[in-house]
Specification:
The chain is built from 15 helices and twelve strands. It has 339 residues and is of the alpha/beta class. It binds (2S)-2-hydroxy-2-methyl-3-oxobutanoic acid.
């Protein structure tokens, strides 16, 4: 195109297409007008990758190839902390990230991950799709990132170990346990007198294989999709924390996209999040027998004993002070966390 940059010409073409939608559906003025990169840390077989790939295909089909959302799963573009930096700099356009790792940039985003706050999904989704989620999204927007409305599910986290099962809070004392890079994870396992090691997910398998860490904690669907059963022996069903994945757009990218493009991407990602939540819940409820068949030994625990330990160590008081009275009250009313 003479005298016009490619992007401004493409915007014109898309603008024309919007004014005359028949163009958008019947003619391909150029190749993909918008080639965008989405990254995550989950394996190909994880529902997050499966459903976001489906959404990318649906977006491409609906726009007749004008939006090409390329998917880079499994930490192909780096560890979580690297990818967050790339998102902020505009090197990556979209990224899904745990609220707790995001709290390194948006401290109050970690509120949904407080230990033993959620007894199940019955109160979780109304909270994350309601007032608590909106509070966190407003905090995220202040950082310059754009959070999509529907958070994806990671699930309720279980502790896996190589040496011995975790049956009581005291069993965690001195345990070299890998945790994602986030002060809330470190704080919680220090309250159990464990020895938490902050390691990006991309290094978890090797850190367990080389015995840098003797334990880790993740929902079963993540444990299984990353094949961690190959380097662990026990899974203790602690359900100690719920975790999700915010679908984040880099502000620089998002603000340049035309409103109709934004709308199409958000529509398909909201549908993907709903399907992914159903996938994760179904798999986390059904995978125990498949993982046990691979030699993993499961045990249940009394969550009240773990929650009492955290309370006695001042964990809840510490985080109430960090989040402030109003947000803590919102968490209590949303989750049923006892005062
Ligand atoms: O890093 C982890 O353990 C994972 C995959 O669950 C998160 O993204 C927080």
């Amino acid at each position: 195109m003479t005298g016009m940059t490619r992007r401004s010409a493409l915007k014109l073409s898309l603008g024309a297409a919007i004014a005359f939608p028949s163009i958008l559906t019947t003619t391909r003025v150029f190749g993909a007008d918008f080639t965008l990169k989405y990254a995550n840390n989950c394996p190909e077989t994880h529902p997050l990758t499966i459903r976001t790939r489906e959404a990318a295909a649906a977006i491409k089909a609906e726009t007749n190839g004008k939006i090409d959302l390329q998917v880079f799963p499994n930490s192909q573009l780096g560890g979580d902390t690297d990818m967050l930096a790339q998102l902020r700099a505009g090197g990556i356009d979209f990224f899904t990230l745990s609220p707790l790792i995001l709290s390194t940039l948006v401290p109050k985003a970690a509120v949904s991950g407080i230990g033993f706050a959620w007894s199940g999904y019955d109160r979780l989704w109304p909270a994350m799709d309601g007032k608590l989620g909106e509070f966190v999204r407003a905090e995220i927007r202040k950082s310059g990132l754009y959070p999509f409305e529907k958070i994806f599910d990671n699930g309720f986290r279980q502790i896996s170990t190589s040496g011995k099962p975790i049956k009581t809070p005291e069993d965690l004392a001195g345990l070299k346990i890998r945790v994602p890079p986030s002060s809330l994870w470190t704080s919680m396992f220090k309250a159990f007198d464990a020895a938490p090691l902050s390691i990006n997910f991309s290094e978890v398998y090797s850190s367990l294989q080389t015995r840098i860490a003797d334990a880790q904690e993740n929902p079963l669907v993540t444990f299984e999709s990353a094949k961690l059963y190959e380097v662990q022996k026990f899974v203790s069903k602690t359900n100690h924390m719920w975790d999700g994945f915010w679908f984040l757009a880099g502000g620089k990218t998002w603000n340049k996209l035309p409103a109709d493009v934004q709308k199409i991407i958000e529509k398909h990602m909201a549908a993907a999040a709903q399907k992914e939540r159903e996938d994760v819940q179904r798999l986390n409820a059904s995978l125990e027998k498949d993982i046990a068949a691979k030699g993993i030994i499961f045990n249940s625990v009394d969550p009240a004993a773990f929650q009492a330990k955290l309370k006695s160590k001042g964990f809840y008081k510490e985080w109430q002070a960090k989040f402030g009275a109003d947000l803590w009250k919102l968490l209590e009313t949303s989750s049923g966390l006892p005062e």
